[in-house]
Specification:
Structural class: alpha+beta
Radius of gyration: 14 Å
Helix content: 10-25%
Shape: globular
Order of helices and strands: EEEHEHHHE
Number of helices: 4
Strand content: 25-35%
Largest sheet: 5 strands, antiparallel
Distance between the termini: 15 Å
Amino acid sequence: MKQAKIYMRLQFAGILTEDETGYSFDYDNEYLHAQDPEAVSLTLPLRKEKYRSNVLFPFFDGLIPEGWLLDIAGRSWKIDRRDRMSLLLACCKDCIGAVSVVPIENETP
């Protein structure tokens, strides 16, 4: 399982998860109740229910570099370009725009 904390304008907004069933995005309850919360994307409006998808949500997929920059990222971190979640985690902590993607390191005993 791979997970990331999603920040909107430096404020923690929710958790993006990839597991054996696909992808999910869950807005943080405190974020939803904050003053003037903002959706991370028009395609992911604010709601309590978890979003689910078989493929990486198009908004998050659109944050991943393309072209020669994607080639460099893939070679540098040895990530297959089809592994979209790993590319997102590796490349999008400090991407252009209001959203940041910060990997959650899962500790294994």
